[in-house]
């Protein structure tokens, strides 16, 4: 409760007390703006110069637009209709122009009187509405408008300056209404508390925050806009990096049990039986991890590695080191298929070292158990007993590991596979299973550009594996334009047959399962040029058609997420054993499935997958000594953005390059895990890829500030900004990160 209302910071004032409840309600519901500060940080999307008008020629269809233009002519028509049978219906057609194109505005019925009076030829105004097509011409029906008179005092005042800001708006709230509201609250910007330390601001020649807010909303020149944006980008980068730096600092204060491998223990025995030498990269990353494990604070490390770069080997050696040191290690996989796969490959790699307590087990051996939700009661009970007594040094499982009932004897290391599929809460719950916080290693095969890693995983130290192990083969990728060149698709199936005849196997990936309710006529079929109208191709349909058609005589099986776990495992076992020639699957095979004999992959409707997903999928082939082949089938036209994306994937095997392309095409909000939290993404002016330097510099500055003053006692402005940026959801995200 505010006992002294006068002392309340102006930026925290609720909008309803300043703008009135009706406007405030629309702003809260449609734009997520609640306080004066929120509104001041709702920056213009772009600016119109008085002399340069929006190009009407390139208006987007069906979008809500704001244009500045001049009325060329206005005509009132009367017509007869059901409502006005005696020819009394009225329609006002106004043509506006900006020199590049023309646009028709239409008003009907009683709505014609005011515009008929206002919109005289020669009048300039801002118009906002939804673009549609009528009689092959672009039009706006009943647009809202605001005259730009230039003589009336109020308009001159509210549109002062040569640049008209256009704001991200909604149908319920036009850009100029937002501009007027911002005009009302702009004086409060003078009270904005500056989060940047004065030394940093002066050292980099940045504007003060009040000045930056004034200039972004009321610029007089392009230079004003540039200076304001530069300052506001620093705010976002710096405040976020301070939050992460504080998180890292807090981690260094936590206790952890140092875990050093015994000189002649399990790890040495394992290394001795390896049939190959580790790559330089694997050795270097392993050293970084072992150094972290030996400290008295929990390791927090992100291990990035291209598909097939040997991350699992590095993670397994870290787990063995912890078991050597008397602790237990848990590996968390996002799906059951993957947990089973990891369990199989770990026990195969370890051989008799995984048979602790059994006849034939080595003296150094430990037990490796699997724990998933679908296991039978007896097996599950045994696995949980082995964990509680410490009999099992390594456990591999799905989120079933996190359940309250699962107890560990001494959990020393948690390895999380594919971070982006794994909730922060889940990692947190598992972390709580140790007597002291366990060490944490997060693995991802999705290459993340350096700046995104700094922004999203800023609380983790990063190690990168960028060499492929010797003996891995390159993968050739090609786009198959099924609509333009159906014979290319026919050739694709011939290539699959050739691979199988040479003793290899293939995957066919589809975006959908196909047992959903759908009308029979809608069933997806490969290569029918219906464009967007048909639903995405489905595993069950495609498998059926291939088995009867181009791949008849080959062993074709299906795999998808809605199959029973035992069924899935049986299919994977048959495929891994080489009993199945072609596996038609959904993206359940995207991560971690390892069948070295599989050399070809055909991805149907490839345009329906994201760039990094395609890269992940492609990594399932070429895992042995024979070269891999990936065919991206699409019906999208040559010129479409979707085809450009596929061409980019076909052109490079460099995951970091692809992740940049991916990021440039998506909103950063998605990448920052904010997509789920509605309209507010925490980055408004900062672009993760473009502003690489700012982010790197802000990280260095933030680390120094936090090291000198972890509680930020000398920087009250920065504390306030942290609270504002980290709305509760984001705060928790960082807390648990």
Structure write-up:
- The chain is of the alpha/beta class and 737 residues long.
- Helix content is 38%, strand content 18%.
- The chain is built from 26 helices and 21 strands.
- Strands 11-12-10-13-14-9-15 form a 7-stranded parallel β-sheet, sandwiched between helices. It has a 6-stranded parallel β-sheet with strand order 16-21-20-17-19-18, sandwiched between helices.
- Helix 9 (222-253) crosses helix 25.
- The longest helix is centred in the first third of the chain and has 32 residues, at 222-253.
- The protein is globular.
Supply database-style keywords.
26 helices, six-stranded parallel sheet, alpha/beta, disordered C terminus, 737 residues, globular, seven-stranded parallel sheet, disordered N terminus
């Amino acid at each position: 409760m505010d006992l002294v209302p006068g002392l309340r910071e102006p930026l925290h004032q609720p909008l309803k007390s300043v703008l009135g409840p009706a406007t405030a309600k629309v702003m809260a519901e449609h734009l997520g703006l609640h306080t004066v500060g929120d509104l001041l940080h709702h920056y213009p999307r772009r600016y119109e110069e008085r002399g340069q008008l929006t190009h009407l020629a390139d208006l987007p269809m069906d979008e809500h637009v704001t244009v500045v233009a001049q009325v060329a002519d206005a005509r009132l028509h009367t017509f007869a209709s059901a409502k006005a049978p005696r020819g009394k219906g009225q329609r006002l057609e106004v043509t506006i122009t900006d020199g590049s194109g023309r646009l028709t505005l239409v008003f009907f019925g009683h709505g014609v009187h005011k515009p008929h009076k206002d919109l005289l030829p020669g009048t300039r105004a801002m118009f906002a509405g939804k673009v549609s097509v009528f009689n092959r011409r672009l039009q706006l029906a009943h647009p809202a408008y605001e005259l730009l008179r230039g003589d009336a005092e109020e308009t001159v005042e509210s549109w002062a300056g040569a640049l008209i800001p256009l704001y991200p708006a909604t149908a319920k709230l036009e850009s100029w209404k937002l501009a007027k509201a911002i005009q009302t609250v702009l004086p409060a910007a003078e009270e904005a508390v500056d989060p940047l330390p004065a030394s940093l601001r002066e050292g980099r020649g940045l504007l003060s925050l009040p000045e930056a807010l004034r200039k972004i909303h009321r610029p007089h020149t392009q230079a004003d806009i540039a200076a304001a944006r530069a300052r506001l980008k620093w705010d976002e980068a710096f405040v976020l990096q301070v939050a992460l730096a504080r998180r890292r600092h807090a981690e260094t204060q936590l206790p952890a049990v140092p875990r050093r491998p015994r000189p002649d223990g399990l790890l040495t025995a394992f290394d001795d039986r390896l049939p190959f030498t580790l790559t330089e990269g694997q050795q270097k990353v392993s050293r970084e991890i072992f150094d972290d494990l030996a400290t008295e604070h929990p390791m927090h490390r992100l291990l990035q590695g291209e598909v097939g770069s040997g991350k699992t080997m590095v993670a397994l050696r870290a787990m063995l080191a912890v078991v050597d040191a008397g602790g237990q290690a848990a590996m968390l996989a996002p799906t059951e298929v993957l947990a089973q796969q990891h369990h199989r490959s770990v026990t195969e790699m370890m051989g008799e070292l995984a048979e602790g307590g059994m006849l034939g087990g080595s003296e150094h051996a430990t037990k490796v158990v699997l724990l998933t939700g679908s296991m039978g009661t007896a097996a599950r009970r045994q696995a949980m007993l082995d964990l509680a007594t410490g009999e099992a040094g390594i456990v591999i499982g799905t989120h079933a590991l996190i359940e309250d009932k699962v107890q560990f004897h001494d959990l020393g290391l948690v390895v999380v596979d594919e971070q982006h599929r794994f909730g922060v809460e889940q990692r947190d719950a598992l972390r709580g299973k140790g007597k002291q916080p366990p060490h944490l290693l997060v693995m991802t095969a999705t290459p993340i550009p350096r700046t995104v890693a700094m922004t999203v995983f800023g609380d983790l130290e990063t190690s990168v594996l960028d060499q492929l192990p010797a003996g891995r083969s390159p993968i050739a990728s090609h786009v198959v334009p099924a609509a333009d060149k159906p014979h290319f698709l026919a050739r694709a199936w011939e290539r699959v047959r050739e691979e199988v005849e040479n003793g290899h196997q293939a995957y066919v990936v589809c975006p959908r399962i196909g047992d959903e309710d759908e009308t029979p006529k809608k069933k997806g079929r490969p290569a029918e040029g219906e464009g967007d109208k048909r639903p995405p191709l489905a595993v069950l349909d495609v498998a059926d058609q291939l088995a009867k058609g181009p791949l008849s005589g080959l062993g074709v099986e299906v795999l998808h997420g809605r199959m029973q776990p035992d069924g899935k495992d049986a299919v994977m076992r048959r495929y891994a054993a080489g009993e199945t020639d072609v596996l038609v699957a959904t993206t359940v095979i995207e991560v971690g499935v390892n069948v070295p004999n599989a050399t070809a992959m055909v991805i149907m409707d490839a345009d329906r997958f994201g760039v990094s997903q395609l890269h992940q999928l492609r990594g399932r082939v070429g895992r042995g000594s024979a070269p891999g082949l990936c065919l991206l089938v699409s019906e999208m036209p040559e010129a479409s953005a979707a085809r450009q994306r596929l061409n980019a994937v076909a052109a490079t095997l460099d995951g970091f390059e692809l992740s940049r392309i991916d990021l440039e095409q998506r909103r950063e909000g998605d990448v920052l895990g904010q997509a789920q939290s509605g309209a507010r993404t925490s980055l408004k002016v900062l672009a993760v890829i473009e502003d690489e330097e700012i982010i790197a510099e802000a990280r260095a500055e933030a680390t120094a500030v936090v090291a000198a003053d972890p509680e930020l006692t000398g920087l009250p402005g920065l504390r306030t900004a942290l609270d504002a940026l980290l709305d509760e959801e984001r705060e928790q995200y960082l807390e648990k990160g």
